[in-house]
Amino acid sequence: MPSAAYIAIGVFLLTYLLAAALSARYYTYMLQLVSYHPKDFIRWGKTNLVGSLILKVFPAIISFVLLFFANTAVFYIASALNVIYFIGFLPKKAKKPFKYTSRVIRLLITQALISALAVLVCVLTGSFCLLAFELVIMFLVVFFANIINKPVEKAVKNHYINEAKAIIDARKDNLTVIGITGSYGKTSTKYYLEKILSQKYNVLMTPGSYNTTMGVVRVIREMLKPSHEIFICEMGARNIGDIKEICDIVHPKHAIITSVGPQHLETFKSIENVTDTKFELADAVSDGFVVLNGDNEYITSRKCEKNCVYYGIDNKNADFTAENIELSSKGTSFAVKYDGGEAQISTRLIGSHTVLNILACFAMAKKLDVPDSDIAIAVRKLEYVPHRLQLIDAGECVMIDDAFNSNPSGAKAALDALSSFDGVKILVTPGMVELGEKQFELNKTFGAQASAVCDYIFIVGKYNLDSISAGAKEAGFDVDGRLAYSSKLEDAVSEARALESGKRKYILLENDLPDNFR
């Protein structure tokens, strides 16, 4: 073979390796965003293959066809196509950065071995089209690498879980574990409860959104100290059994279930499955008590056979109720009434759902013998939880950052909070996702609700554009003059801030879709 041909092949192999590495990284990042669940990864692939992925892999498809007629010129053309291919997979600024965890490194090594095998086969056989084909199906390469690594990952997972179990078991006589779950409200409730209980106890809570099994395990192994008296453990779920798995590790003595609603219906399939999964936490409580949202119909319709305590605003039969509620843009005040007492509560936090979250914490704190006065002091000092109705004063406008909210009830509560402000009210949102068959219907309802509150609506991305627009239009909103579309969140916010209004603007950022929904 002439030396020119060897150079052409070398250039092709080099560009192939770059293309393979970048596309493998991209798909591995998408896999990481769905917590390495094969079914969720396939679901993401089906959603994206029709659109963006076809465009991304199209250069590799052309290269695959050309390489059946391999010659020096074709190798250079295929190399150019590889360059075009990997440009499409160049990393972009991510909302949730790609983490090179030990699991990711093991996964990338497996993918590299698969690619190395493909290179060896093509060099020995001269079938270079095989490499282009691998680029076309890199999504499947990552999928099968994840499957191949499953036994190893299971062994690693069990090792860390057993370590966490041993730590918890060693503290069973002097550590109280409080589990918190819910379709929405669980993270805010966790933050509030930690501040309140810290008035009397040494408390550790799972930070941020560490609410998966391995997130909780990491907190136990790295953060739980002998001095901690209470461990507040947030528990998230995307599938039936997720919460039970966490409960089997931490053995919660007490529990709070903040809500049950139509969230993650793509994986849960039905609201009944959501309810059953949330109540896995209640089922795990033995001799403690369970604090339940008495305003939530799915919760109240479920028979609780534990020592249950209910809280609510609308449910006046609840054990802890809120009365004389005063909501404003400057904060919230109300009276908590319970058997044997009444406490005046005030906070600078906004929103009626904040009242419910504080009520849940009040009920738990009272059960743990925290005085009313200490609870009131802690509530007055509460700060906004990042991205959960967090007020950010930006001079000519106020940003109401509710970017972590992604459920119908929470979105409605955020709109109610926005309505309390006196000024130009603007909604910036991509809508809600993972709602299964109710996706269009619930986002359409959201659009109608927004039209009753907002002066302007900016929809980010096309994922829910039609449904939100339809709801707003049916409700009589001026969709031609006051509803706009932007492909990027940053552009929508900039346009909202640039609006000429003559009044102070209040911009509600409701939800911010993760990168796998772009």
Give a structural overview.
The chain contains 20 helices and 15 strands. The chain is α/β, with parallel strands linked by helices. A nine-stranded mixed beta sheet has the order 2-3-1-4-5-6-7-8-9, with helices on both faces. It has a six-stranded mixed beta sheet with strand order 10-11-15-12-13-14, with helices on both faces.
Q: Care to give the gist of this entry?
A:
With 518 residues, the protein is α/β, with parallel strands linked by helices. The chain contains 20 helices and 15 strands. The chain is 52% helix and 16% strand.
Please state the overall shape, judged from the principal axes of the Cα atoms. globular
Low-confidence stretches: none
Strand ordering within the main sheet: 2-3-1-4-5-6-7-8-9
Note the gap between the termini.
Answer: 46 Å
Rg (CA only): 26 Å
Q: β content, as a range?
A: 15-25%
Largest sheet: 9 strands, mixed
Structural class: alpha/beta
Number of DSSP strand runs: 15
Mean pLDDT: 89
Determine the fraction of residues in helical runs and give it as a percent range: 40-55%
| SS element count, helices | 20
Pick out its properties.
20 helices; 6-stranded mixed sheet; alpha/beta
Write the layout of secondary structure elements.
Elements: H1 3-33, H2 38-66, H3 72-87, H4 102-125, H5 129-136, H6 138-148, H7 150-170, E1 176-181, H8 186-197, E2 203-205, H9 213-223, E3 230-234, H10 242-250, E4 254-257, H11 265-268, H12 271-284, E5 289-293, H13 297-300, E6 307-312, E7 320-328, E8 331-338, E9 341-347, H14 352-367, H15 372-380, E10 390-393, E11 397-402, H16 408-419, E12 424-429, H17 439-451, E13 456-460, H18 465-474, H19 479-482, E14 483-486, H20 489-498, E15 505-510
Parallel strand pairs: 1-3, 1-4, 2-3, 4-5, 5-6, 6-7, 11-15, 12-13, 12-15, 13-14
Antiparallel strand pairs: 7-8, 8-9, 10-11
